[in-house]
Amino acid sequence: MNVALLGYGRIGQAVVALAARPDVRACLRRARVDVRWVSALVRDLDRPRTGPPVPLTTIASGTVDADVVVELLGGAEPARSLVQAALRARVPVVTANKTLVARHGAELRALAARQRTAFVYEAAVLAGVPFLGSLARRPVIASARRFTGILNGTSHFVTTAVERGATLAGALDRARTLGYAEPDSTADTSGRDAAEKLAILLHAGGCEHAAPDDFPRLPLDVLNHDLISGARRLGGTIKPVVVADLDLPHAGAWVGPAFVPTDHPLAHLDGVTNVLQLTTIAGGVVTFTGPGAGPDATALTVIDDVIEAATGRGGPRASCGFSGARTDVTRALRTPPTAGWLLEIRHERERDPRAVARQLSAISVPPLQICAHAGAVLARTIPAPWKVVEHALQAFRAQGSTVVALPCLV
Amino acid sequence: MNVALLGYGRIGQAVVALAARPDVRACLRRARVDVRWVSALVRDLDRPRTGPPVPLTTIASGTVDADVVVELLGGAEPARSLVQAALRARVPVVTANKTLVARHGAELRALAARQRTAFVYEAAVLAGVPFLGSLARRPVIASARRFTGILNGTSHFVTTAVERGATLAGALDRARTLGYAEPDSTADTSGRDAAEKLAILLHAGGCEHAAPDDFPRLPLDVLNHDLISGARRLGGTIKPVVVADLDLPHAGAWVGPAFVPTDHPLAHLDGVTNVLQLTTIAGGVVTFTGPGAGPDATALTVIDDVIEAATGRGGPRASCGFSGARTDVTRALRTPPTAGWLLEIRHERERDPRAVARQLSAISVPPLQICAHAGAVLARTIPAPWKVVEHALQAFRAQGSTVVALPCLV
Q: A68's torsion region: left (phi>0), alpha (psi -120 to 50) or beta?
């Protein structure tokens, strides 16, 4: 089984190293998959690499002769063109590239289906936890009523550090030192990475045209210790989440910090753990938890993907679920969901929480809780549609206040 | 697609009712699976049933003509013979019957593989959470180093109720009233149900000959409020768990109550939630959480199984993982694992904890914590192999004490 790697960075080297372990070799042998790493496409042949030696190349043409292609380049191009070329040649493709799958998954799945070959990407979301294959094969559970999750480990680590007293910049520096964040962490802090993962989930759930750039996104910049300690006073904490509520008329999406009540399962996780909660059409909540990134966890998943692709078990994956009905839902995901809201209202001259409460009540978002905290007023409102909340934010901003609004998970 | 049901009790009726919902019908249509419930095998035609009408029969012969058979009888026979007959006729089989899969899974998987037909049982463990199919297809993650879980909802509900002050008998009565427990709850309280589920996991993990009756099992009868409040004093709680530690030389298994430290993820769950933690060979911990039983959650999984079986995606499932090496591991699962232990030592005449501590130290299981609680001495020991713990238990019993030993999760 000739496997061609596209990219030989941290993940690629971890894949080859893990596959050489005796216990993993026993798995491969038993699955009758005898892997030979025939080539790794790289940009720079001379960059120092500590992983096992693999024939390196800067020429991409060899991929169509391989038995399986493993794409670990990241980003849309040249990954997309190379994956297309492989699939056109009926070579099964494994990828861990969420940008590729989020932005071009529909087209690549369709191509793979036409060519009757495998296009497998279990590591694209919750890299260490196999569940996307289940959703692809099982349309009833995939037709979720709601997805809620923490899908970006860097943001989660940073939020936990800020909760413990660090500044945002200090926490990001520490994440870089520990190898959790890239030198440029914009994809993490802006929510782009989490939005791409949410799009992949939604495609599996039948919202075929959900696009990562369409979801409402609040960057991590709003985070500071005062906001989190204030959330504690109101009985919760702040977590960097994704939410997609797929039940009309409440439907909506959110990518960014949110208020999580202490009794919510997401409140108890920390560090770099990733988690996905799926609410089924029967009303049950199914939760997948585990490492969301990291070379070893990702490598393990990639090797299992190679086995699925090589043994024909990775079969073509269609998105499934409610075909017609979900077009309206997809449109609704451009707006935040109907939810309770945590409002942080900050005014030059400190304001009386009771006056703020009266104003909120007058504009149809009465607070359930309200307090003065660290020079701001913090309020937790009743559930309200985004239109009403937006109107309230405008009213406060017109008075010269700065306002941050975070949805409250239930 | 003619589907024959074997059994038409609560689960069967929930399956047919759920499949009739417009949203589920849309899923089935999209997957090109047009289900017709052609028959349901029952013992008693006249028993009152509230579910949708399905042609009932007491004669089993029709199953070999169906396109898919859904077995929901429970128990080993006649389920085993009927499933064998269907597979021999190359009819794909879906089952939610953990007794059948735990005790005859190897033989039925082999038969299905020979006949190139599907034998699918996603609802047998964590009924509402799809993950067994992933383990069956993905040998590297399936080759776990450890499984830890709460796999029996009834025991979990009862333990939570006892923690809140109920008696064991009172909690069981309440579980029956709420429909969580059968009139005869022996399978739940004895650990038999959880042991069967653990066996299914271990088969997926390459321990093909793990047998549910071989695991060390402690029935729920040892539970009482004093034990749990004592555990609280030592920084944890009691949960009804399964553990299989597959790393020699520490390997071992446990089915029954265990001490769970407060900072352990399993300590935060309650009610009837089920959970499985899988430690991978790369050291990561992957967790699956969700409803472990209940007609609706199980029915949803069964319908997805029917789709997998009908579309050929359910393919034959081999157990995978370390073939040779795991024979020794399987043997080790007849003994509890090396672990820290919570000991409750009760003596007619109340004993001084310091004296007990000295005695424990003298027999190589020094306590990390010890206290007098509700007329007993409670100790949490250092990690020790079962042989040493067993010797300690014998020493205390020889002095006329009654001793309960529970492993401590880490």
A: beta
In angstroms, rounded to a whole number, what is the distance separating the alpha carbons of residues B221 and B402? 14
Find the CB nearest A321 among B27, B129, B300: B27
Q: Alpha carbon A283 to chain centroid distance?
A: 23
Q: Within 13 Å of residue A328, how many CA atoms lie on the same side as its CB?
A: 8
Sign of CA dihedral B389, B394, B397, B402: positive
Query: Which of A140, A275, A302 would you mutate first to test chain B, the one with the most B CBs within 10 A?
Result: A140
Do B256 and B217 contact (CB within 8 A), yes or no?
yes
Confidence category of residue B321, pLDDT binned at 50, 70, 90:
very low
Torsion of CA A218, A222, A226, A231, to 10 degrees: -10
Q: How far is A173 from chain B (nearest CA, A)?
A: 24
- Residues 283 through 312 of chain B touching chain A, CB cutoff 8 Å: 283-291, 294, 296-297, 299-301, 303-304, 307-308
A92: left (phi over 0), alpha (psi -120 to 50) or beta: beta
A400 close to B (CB below 8 A): no
Q: Dihedral sign, CA of A293, A295, A297, A298?
A: positive
Tell me the C-alpha to C-alpha distance, in Å, between residue B387 and each of B339, B357, B363.
Answer: 11, 19, 11
For the record, the structure tokens of B304 come out as 């997805």
Q: Say if CB A278 and CB A144 are below 8 A apart.
A: yes
Q: How far apart are CA A143 and CA B109, in angstroms?
A: 29
What span, in angstroms and rounded, lies between the C-alpha atoms of B311 and B295? Answer: 24
B323 and chain A in contact, CB less than 8 A: yes
Q: Which helix (H) or strand (E) holds A18?
A: helix A10-19
Rounded to an integer, what distance in angstroms lies between the CA atom of residue A329 and that of residue A214? 13
Give the Cα separation of A395 and B111 in Å (integer).
70
pLDDT of residue B271: 80
Query: Residue for token digits 């589907």?
Result: B3
A204-235 residue pLDDT tens: 999 988 999 999 999 999 999 999 999 999 99
Taking a C-beta distance cutoff of 8 angstroms, is the pair A180, A272 a contact? Answer: yes
pTM, 2 dp: 0.96
- pLDDT of B198-207, one tens digit each? 999 999 999 9
In the prediction, which pLDDT does A124 show?
97
Using 50, 70 and 90 to split pLDDT, how confident is the model at A118? very high
Side-chain-side CA neighbours of B230 within 13 Å: the count stands at 26
Contact yes or no for B284 and A27 at CB 8 A: no
- For B260-288, the DSSP string reads EETTSGGGG--TTEEEEEEE-TTS-EEEE
User: What was the ipTM of the complex prediction?
Assistant: 0.96
Nearest-CB residue to A24 (from B137, B140, B268): B140
pLDDT at A315: 66
Element of type H or E holding B22: helix B22-30
The two three-digit tokens of residue A393, written as one number: 């934010």
**For the residues of B57-108, what is the DSSP string, one character each?**
ES-GGGGGGSSEEEE---SSTTHHHHHHHHHHTT--EEE--HHHHHHHHHHH
Q: Is the dihedral of CA B140, B142, B147, B149 positive or negative?
A: positive
Q: Are B195 and B253 in contact (CB under 8 A)?
A: no
| Catalytic status, residue A387 | no
